[in-house]
Specification:
6 helices, elongated, mainly alpha
Length: 127
């Protein structure tokens, strides 16, 4: 437990490391959902049937719980992302907006945090 706390403290004090951690997480956020989407296409056909996808996401109480949790949590975070990006005047936000819907929220949230950390570094370097 102390190791984890020290690791996070170390990352907090070195924004470059923290920003790259977010970037690595965003890459994982592309890879892992795409693997699942690929497996979905293999099992249910090459045409991505969004209705079937939603039906399967609600197929049992566990899947339904995770789907609802992600929908509500991601919606709140997406609103914050829009607000925060406008406050900080973060560039390249189109990647986050499009990536949320075409890739995965697992990509766009950490990628936004990467862009945010880099912007905070840029602002602090100017001061």
């Amino acid at each position: 437990m102390i190791f984890i706390v020290n690791t996070f403290y170390s990352l907090k004090n070195n924004k470059y490391k923290l920003s790259y951690l977010y970037l690595v997480l965003s890459i994982f956020g592309v890879i892992f959902p795409m693997i699942s989407n690929y497996n979905f296409a293999i099992e249910y056909g090459p045409n991505f049937d969004i209705l079937k996808f939603i039906q399967l996401a609600s197929n049992n109480p566990a899947a339904e719980s995770i789907s609802r949790d992600l929908f509500i949590g991601a919606s709140a975070i997406f609103i914050w992302i829009i607000n925060e990006s406008q406050k900080l005047k973060i560039k390249n936000m189109w990647i986050v907006y499009i990536g949320t819907f075409l890739i995965a929220f697992a990509f766009s949230a950490p990628f936004f945090l990467f862009l945010r950390e880099r912007r905070l570094i840029e602002i602090s370097d100017k001061n």
